[in-house]
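Thread title: Can someone regenerate the structure for this chain?

I was given the following input by a collaborator and told the matching structure tokens would be attached. They weren't. Posting the sequence so someone can regenerate them.
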Amino acid sequence: MICKKTLNLMLVAAAAMFVQTGCAKEQSNPKVEERKMITLETTKGNIVIEVNETAAPITSANFLRYVQEGFFDGLIFHRVIPGFMIQGGGFTPDMQQKQGHEPIINEAKNGLKNDRGTISMARTPDPNSASSQFFINLVNNDMLNYVGPRNFGYAVFGKVVEGMDVVDAIAQVKTGNKAGHQNVPLEAVIIKSAKVTPAK
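Best answer:
Regenerated them for you:
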């Protein structure tokens, strides 16, 4: 027969085990992944971009790598077409192309659309040729979305969460031909810095 004192001790021990187990489970829960925000400080103002690492992990990692290396600092938006998009990430103010890393796999079929305010990777006719150049959509550019292997589209990997007024201001600058390129701002729109910043 178990005496009252022994029973009380067993109950206390059981309660302690329950609390410890509960704490262990609570501590083992994974932390919610923080959103990655990139602030592009430009000569027209700041643009804050949220990258979507869930839908576009390869493209997001590629972009973040360039940001962390300071690759974009001092480069320009070298192609501006009102009613379409603004493009940057590849040229210096004197239109010298900066060499990036190896091209990445095209993630255009990730379900994200080239809607106004989204950011996508620029590329050549080769679907898997994107490296450092990116563009921000000024309107819903449905023709840039993934359709199939013969019309692969352009990979969206994030969106502007602050500073679309700055994007629109860049879209209104006067452009012309320069160094064999069309639609180049006549007054350079420079990316002064690109940094990972805390989510608000």
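Residues 4-32 have pLDDT under 50 and may be disordered.
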